[in-house]
From TrEMBL:
GO terms for cellular component: nucleus. Residues 1-98 form the SET domain. SUPFAM superfamilies: SET domain. This is SET domain-containing protein. Pfam families: SET. PROSITE patterns: SET.
């Protein structure tokens, strides 16, 4: 009854399990392989430490949507399902097989992730062919003010999750109405690839040793490139996440807050419904509004001759309280009043 792909061969790991556990007399390796596939494709994450998964019979029959009308969480050992948007009589109840941050990804990346982990190609209302991908927006190459959104990919299998220039050809600017030509799409796609490399480089360096940390000038260069070429793009958000962390480490509180504000706006604009990722970004901004003070460290501590200081942003308890309130409104609807996501924010707001 539960979904699983056709199994004709067994993996070496399954054969080893049957052999070492002496299951051979009662269980064929191919049957264990089928059982494991059913588990893998229909289980839910249960715990991080230790890493654990669980299967719930009715819950495992629910389909995925990148615009789900329900969300699940645990209360003890119970699997709790809550509505995250209006559900009419006759509507199929769908959950997301992706994490909350995954729902903000571009359609090609979402579809590839679902195929890699659950073995299907998504055709939900956000992944249908030729729709505007609200997580993949560019500055219009003509007016620079409007947004050009790439189109969602064609239905069916994809080679990989690459963001293709073909998906930008024919896109229409929201401002001036310009239709993107092939050469323009190629240039936009090239900038997209460049930004992906910037994000990867930032992530690697920020997680690395202090000697590899980017300085303020490098961070500002990345921001300038983003502002000149992108508008409502998930790679912007991923870059801002790294930039915000870097500014926080340098105690540049005003820049840290500014990047968190930009992340919150992207989350609100890119996803049409309740979003846990948006709520947690609001919570992070609330933390920044109340918790960072004092002058920053030099933006380039390795350069003793040039010390650039930034005046720290003042605490703003009122703004922090409002941000926590906005986050709680989302989190209560999604997870209920007693969930730790809610109570953690309530303690901060008290």
């Amino acid at each position: 009854l539960l979904y699983h792909s056709e199994i004709t061969e067994t993996s070496e790991a399954t054969k080893l399990l049957v052999e070492k556990l002496n299951l051979g007399p009662n269980l064929k390796a191919v049957d264990l392989e089928r059982l494991l596939q059913i588990w893998i494709l229909n289980c839910f994450e249960h715990s991080d430490e230790p890493l654990g998964y669980s299967t719930y019979f009715m819950s495992s029959f629910m389909s995925h949507s990148c615009y789900p009308n329900a969300v699940w969480h645990y209360t003890g050992a119970d699997h709790v399902l809550r509505a995250r948007r209006d559900i009419n009589i006759g509507d199929e109840v769908c959950i997301s097989y992706l994490p909350e941050s995954g729902l903000l990804q571009s359609a090609p990346v979402r579809r590839m992730e679902l195929h890699d982990t659950k073995r299907f190609w998504c055709t939900c209302e956000r992944c249908g062919t030729g729709l505007e991908d609200l997580s993949r927006g560019f500055c219009c190459p003509v007016c620079q003010e409007g947004i050009v959104f790439a189109k969602t990919p064609n239905a069916g299998p994809a080679k990989d999750g690459s963001l293709l220039s073909q998906q930008i050809i024919g896109a229409k600017c929201s401002g001036c109405g310009h239709v993107v030509a092939k050469a323009e799409a190629t240039k936009l796609s090239t900038n997209e690839q460049k930004l992906q490399k910037m994000v990867d480089n930032l992530t690697k360096r920020i997680e690395g040793p202090p000697s590899k940390q980017p300085d303020a000038k490098e961070l500002q260069t990345v921001e300038s490139f983003i502002d000149s070429n992108f508008h409502q793009h998930v790679l912007m958000d991923l870059a801002w996440q790294q930039l915000a962390d870097a500014y926080a480490a340098k105690r540049r509180s005003a820049d840290h807050r500014r990047l968190l504000e930009r992340r919150c706006k992207f989350h609100a604009d890119a996803y049409p419904g309740l979003s846990g990722a948006h709520a947690w970004a609001l919570e992070a901004l609330g933390d920044a509004m109340r918790g960072i003070n004092g002058a920053s460290e030099p933006t380039a501590p390795e350069d003793k001759k040039k010390r650039v200081w930034q005046v720290a942003a003042k605490e703003d308890p009122k703004a922090s309280h409002q941000l926590y309130t906005e986050a709680l409104k989302i989190l209560r609807l999604m997870f209920g009043d007693d969930h730790e996501y809610v109570t953690d924010v309530e303690r901060k707001q008290a």
